[in-house]
Amino acid sequence: MSFWTKNDYAEGTAAKHFFFSAIVMLVIGTLLAIITSFRLAWPDIMPNDIPWLHFGRVRPVHVHFVIFGWIFMAFAGAMCYITPALCKTKLWSERLGVWNCWAWNVGMVVVFITLINGLTTGREYQDLIWPVDIYVLLFILLPLAVNVWMTMLNRRTEGLYVTLWFFGAAALFIILTYFIGAIPDFFPVTGLSEAYMTWWHAHNVLGLWITPVSAAIAYYIIPKISGNTLYSHKIGHLHFWSIVAFYSTPGAHHLMGAPIPEWLKSFASVSGVLIMIPALAFVVNMLMTMKDKWWMFTRNISLQWALTGVLFAIPLNIQGAFQQTRTLNWYIHGTHWIVAHAHLALLGFSTFIEIGAIYYGLPKLLKRKLYSTKLARIHFWMTAIGFLGFWISLTGGGLVQGAAKVYEIPYIESVIATHPYMVGRAIFGLLIIFAQPLFLYNMVMTARKGERVEDDAPALQPAPATA
Ligand code: HEM
Hints:
The protein has helices spanning 13-41, 55-87, 94-116, 132-153, 162-182, 191-226, 233-246, 262-273, 276-289, 296-299, 301-323, 326-332, 336-366, 373-406, 411-417, 419-449. The chain has 467 residues and is an all-alpha fold. The two termini are 31 Å apart.
């Protein structure tokens, strides 16, 4: 037995570590948003002589805690839980998983210290300076990928269920994407090339990692909870291959107003519209899987979260396809609309699915019943109402800004006109922010006081049919 495969941690330990860490990151990340959203609604509400409270310092910390801390660690937890379950084996190395999780938490402390002190590359979503970026590659992303791939190699099943296709490929894509995005840290890539690489990276973190892994989790938990088999494996494969074909190319749609070659913009715009193919495949497959089981939507809390996430994918992808066409892009670029869209993707679509996965998986890993379903429902409604109000306020504010651009109204007047929308976002945002500590409390209480259930080892429970 090798150093890594020693059985000194019980089955499921790594997934539990990741899930709890992810929830803590969600609480911290959303709490930080009080500062950013209040700053945009009432700029002088906080002292202006404390740099750590400046919008420009706190914004990237918020973004990193919710994406890199919450979403990524929730993914890691789901991968460490679902991969062995689908492979009918154990996680290759619980030890590596637990170490990986601690390294990740240490990394988040470093991320906090560097970004809050203004130590940044200045490239959005690739803000981490050398050597923090190398640390992320070597101690965070690589060990997770090795654990997932090794578990898949040791599987006791013949085929690979569609979730595993996504997990295996996305683990590779994120390493490549992150590496390519970090190149300007080492080589003199500047100007438009640097801008293009930055947005290629940012787009693919979403397209080749966050979107497919969120979908992969839904492909597992929705059939599992509903008791129906997946509607169509073929559509699942169409989803997978069309993501590979169309999702990696439209990075330039973030730079439609920049002086990059025109053919590149047209190419990005057209391939971006083709993203509708994987999006449609995913949503249809999930909604059809629920056939005859829609009554469970209001009864099962995990399903309620996950399906709401799937439903948010519909406006998300319609927006995504249209807003990169040149005319629309010109109208909404650089406005609050974009921030609304980003939250629809990461909070509406992705976060709702991950929270569903945690409500499903964590009690099973703990071998306890959920401490309070009532609290989980309050968590759901606060987050859902908060998010809808947040999204509508920001989208409205974005349209006002777009109109101000078209009619060439002085910028400061658009700032004044969008003040009510900023207040709306801050107030609705508070609902989301206050809901997340309830989630943490419910899960801590589940671990401590939840009713015990004698269950099979979670990883060895039967999985949905393999392809
Ligand atoms: C899981 C939850 C969340 C995720 C994944 C998330 C993600 C993000 C992302 C990706 C951005 C950058 C947007 C862009 O560049 O277009 C951002 C910015 C921001 N977020 Fe969040 N966020 C979350 C929760 C919240 C909450 C609850 C609030 C509360 C109001 C909030 C307020 C903000 C603000 C004010 C900004 C800066 C917007 C700007 O620059 O105009 N976020 N967030």
